[in-house]
Amino acid sequence: MTKTPATSKSAFVTGASKGIGLAVAKALTQAGYAVTITSRSADEIRAAAGQIGADVRGVVCDVKDPQAVQREIDAHVAAFGGLDVLFVNAGVGRFANVADLSIEEWQDVIDTNLSGAFYTVKAAIPALKVRGGYIFTLSSLAGKNPFEGGAAYNASKFGLNGLSEVLNLDLRKHDIKVTQIMPGSVATYFNDHTPSEADAWKIQPEDIAQLTIDLLNMPQRTLPSKVEMRPSRPDKKQA
């Protein structure tokens, strides 16, 4: 692809082969950003990049690997001349009560959802400091509301919320904004779910993408540091 001039704005979105990450990446490109999207699957990220089109880099990157994350952040900066927006989205869910949850499942969730977020942000901070920027962390209402069987997932999202709040304190003096987005039920492929018409009542990935663009357009002096999102109406079957 043609190298984008350094004056262009750019964004880096993890876990963007489908669902929320893909919707956010599409919205960012439509808003004029050159974008790097990541996934652990080469086939899925190739297909996602094909959906987006111009000014997108699709790369294979496991956020659990700090060296891989640093390498791809550095490659993004080299390709696009800098970094303005980081959307930390990559995440997994493993759900079981503590007695049945394996150590491997615990580690997979914590290493992806929490440590992976840390690695990604840490790799991106030097580039974001150059011209200021915006970090979005995709958390969940599960980051404040525990539920049975949610030990690993709850812990990862509670931790991500704490990390996000500290990032705000650490980075605001560098003109870097941090917003944690905490959605409830979203119509995505998360946890092997396939979205269908039955999910029409849920938050849609495009809704979170619209929120992202709206936040980027806020005056520089203003920061919504935490945004909770819920479906405006409950599932009719549960109402």
From TrEMBL:
A single Pfam family it belongs to is: adh_short
Task: Say yes or no: keyword Oxidoreductase present.
Answer: yes
Organism superkingdom: Bacteria
SUPFAM superfamilies of this UniProt entry?
NAD(P)-binding Rossmann-fold domains
Provide the Ketoreductase domain boundaries: 9-175
Quote the InterPro entries the UniProt record gives: KR_dom, NAD(P)-bd_dom_sf, SDR_fam
Task: For this UniProt record, give its keywords in alphabetical order, as a comma-separated list.
Answer: Oxidoreductase
Q: Which family does it belong to?
A: Belongs to the short-chain dehydrogenases/reductases (SDR) family.
Which named protein is this?
Oxidoreductase SA2266
Q: Which organism is it from?
A: Deinococcus xinjiangensis
